[in-house]
Design goal:
With about 220 residues, the chain is an alpha/beta fold. It has helices at about 15-25, 40-50, 75-95, 125-135, 155-165, 190-195, 200-215; strands spanning about 30-35, 55-60, 100-105, 115-120, 140-150, 170-180, 180-185. About 45% of the residues are buried. Strands 3-2-1-4-5-7-6 form a 7-stranded mixed sheet, with helices on both faces. It has one domain (about 15-215): Rossmann fold (3-Layer(aba) Sandwich), CATH 3.40.50.
Length: about 220
């Protein structure tokens, strides 16, 4: 049975939604799920529907109308307001409006919780903001907790952030990925070689993006 709310705009695939669903269901009652980057709620709905009763679900997104997709960086307030309204309406329509605490602010300005059981990072994809999310918020993931990172080995900024902040860290064990959605566990054996083995796929994605920008290729943005 599909767990992907296909009627909600976003870039999460069926396989990626299934991984989010599985990880969210593993969070124990009293635990906390934090999502950085919600857009219109596609992934938020998956996480909230899968979370057990008593699990806190927090969505951090400033909805500035920026970082909404490929090549969209500048803030566009009108789009941001539209996204906010659509985000909340989508959550209500899927019955999880009361399950989600929306923190409408930049992740670098949002207050950090004491502990996170499941962290899903899909915020700004530029190197600086992405690395900040991985370092600051990742530090709050409890031992044995999970961090999921979208656009891993796809986005240049996110991949460089991973390679400098997560791959060399003895704290993170790479589990695997569905497309660009990579899963890490806090604790366990560091497996640098397994992560570096994803770089040919990353190079392939970069080539696809260049060809798309040059209008040589027609097709979906790789994610």
């Amino acid at each position: 049975m599909s767990v992907l709310p296909a009627d909600v705009e976003g870039w999460l695939t069926e396989a990626q939604a299934a991984r989010l669903d599985r990880c969210a269901r593993a969070v124990p009652a009293g635990g906390r799920i934090v999502e950085i980057g919600s857009f219109r709620g596609r992934s938020t709905i998956v996480l909230a529907r899968a979370a057990a009763s008593g699990v806190e679900v927090v969505a951090v997104d400033p909805h500035l109308g920026s970082d909404r997709g490929p090549q969209e960086i500048a803030a566009q307030p009108e789009l941001g307001e539209q996204d906010t309204l659509r985000f909340r309406a989508n959550l209500e329509r899927h019955g999880v409006g009361e399950r989600v605490t929306h923190m409408r602010m930049l992740s670098c300005e949002a207050p950090l919780p004491d502990s996170i059981d499941l962290l899903y990072v899909d915020g700004a994809h530029r190197f600086g903001p992405a690395r900040d999310d991985l370092v600051r918020w990742g530090a709050r993931v409890r031992a044995g907790g999970t961090m999921l990172v979208h656009d891993s080995f796809s986005s240049i900024g996110v991949t460089l952030a991973l390679l400098t902040a997560v791959t060399p860290s003895p704290r993170w064990h790479y589990v695997g990925r569905d497309g660009s959605l990579a899963e890490y566990v806090a604790g366990g054996e560091r497996n640098v070689a397994t992560q570096l083995a994803q770089l040919p796929w990353f190079a392939y994605n970069v080539v696809l993006k260049v060809l798309t920008l040059l209008r040589v290729r027609r097709g979906p943005w790789p994610y």
